Amino acid sequence: MRTWRTGTVTAGVLLIVTGLLWFLQNFISIPFEKLLLNAWPVACILLGVEILAFHVLRKDGTLRFHWASVVLLVFVMVVSLGFNFVNVVLNELGIQFHTSEVAIHDTKKVPDTIKEIVIDVPRGDVTVRGAESNKLVVTGSIMVPAGDEKEAEEKLLKFYSVKILGDKMYVQVKQKYAEFIDFTDSDALLDIEVPKFLETKTIVNNGSIELKNMENTAALQLDNGNIQVENFAGTLQGSIGNGMITIEEAALQGNSNLTTNNGAILLGLKINQHLKIYAEGFNGDINGNIPWVKQTQEGMNVGEVVLGDGTNQLIMKANGEITVNQ
Predict the structure, then answer these.
(1) How confident is the model at residue 158 (pLDDT cuts 50, 70, 90)?
(2) pTM assigned to the model
(3) Largest CA distance in the chain
(4) SS (HEC) of the chain
(5) Strand pairing partners for 287?
(6) How far is CA 59 from the centre of its chain?
(7) What are the residue ranges spanned by the domains of the chain?
(8) What radius of gyration, in Å, describes the C-alpha atoms of the chain?
(9) Contacts of 98 (CB under 8 A, 6+ apart)
(10) Of 102, 166, 103, 172, which Cα lies nearest the Cα of 136?
(11) What is the pLDDT of residues 42-60, one digit of tens each?
(12) 78: left (phi > 0), else alpha (psi -120 to 50), else beta?
């Protein structure tokens, strides 16, 4: 009878199970991270069962270990414990290699005391539309650091919130702690309906902003991407680091300002505007069907025009072409 060396059965079972799971992942979803996290206790249990089985079946035998198998089991335990430690550290730092999409369907009543709605999204495409209601309605989806959809839903409240501070209502998508070490796509896709007569401020680092059917003061701030505004009446403050500003059917009031550091501005005004416009274009011309008075100053194209009685004011600065049509 061959000598039973403890560790061989445990190592064999682990190899068979690992190979089987690796094969099955071609057909079903298997969370290998969780398998690695639990590999070391499973190895301990199997080895313990094998030792007990040896003492039951061979009471008079001498316990001997198969050292190659033991080394394999120790290796599995070390890898599992190391992965466990690294996983804890990454979670504490907010570093994730996987994200999952989670849907948002959120409706909140806007109190009468609210004067401004502030929308803050690190990365994503955000549409803000005005409505004849006193409700804030947020629909769409965001990507959160999670291994699956269930975990993503559990983490949603950590990365999305609506809160009231004073006379302002905030809609915020939280940035991950260590987004500078981000191996995933964490873009948001949000459609936000707000009372059309409230002031709004929308801040997006990377992505796009669309503003539709609003009638008050609006501030749009974007680092990289495009801004598009449709059917707007009021005071508009828009700035982009890199990208284009496109505005259609606008009736500007008060003192508005549009700036892009690297991109063009295309403005379509409603007729019968009372607006004084001053435009500065670097590396681009100033165009449109309004009666511009143009000149060149230190290599920069400058244009001015007064529409109607000029009671409202618009200043535009772009590192690119500026076009205004009415």
Answers:
(1) confident
(2) 0.70
(3) 109
(4) CCCCEECHHHHHHHHHHHHHHHHHCCCCCCCHHHHHHCHHHHHHHHHHHHHHHHHHHCCCCCCEECHHHHHHHHHHHHHHHHHHHHHHHHHHHCCCCCEEEEEEEEEEECCCCCCEEEEEEEEEEEEEEEECCCEEEEEEEEEEECCCHHHHHHHHHHHEEEEEECCEEEEEECCCCCHHHCCCCCCEEEEEEEECCCEEEEEEEEEEEEEEEECCCEEEEEEEEEEEEEEEEECEEEEEEECCEEEEEEEECCEEEEEECCCCEEEEECCCCCEEEEEEECCCCEEECCCCEEEEECCEEEEEEEECCCCEEEEEEECCCEEEEC
(5) 323
(6) 63
(7) 5-93, 103-325
(8) 31
(9) 145, 146, 147, 184
(10) 172
(11) 777 777 777 777 667 765 6
(12) alpha
Give the pLDDT of residue 49.
Answer: 78
CB 259 within 8 A of CB 275: no
Alpha carbon separation from 77 to 57, 58, 69, 88 (Å, rounded): 27, 27, 12, 17
Cβ-contact 229, 248 below 8 angstroms: yes
The two structure tokens encoding residue 8: 């061989």
The candidate with the shortest Cα–Cα distance to 171, out of 132, 217, 204, is 204
- Chain-centroid distance of CA 280 in Å reads 33
Structure tokens at 170: 């905030």
Residues 54/63, Cβ–Cβ less than 8 Å: yes
Phi, psi angles (nearest 5°) of residue 111 = -60, 155
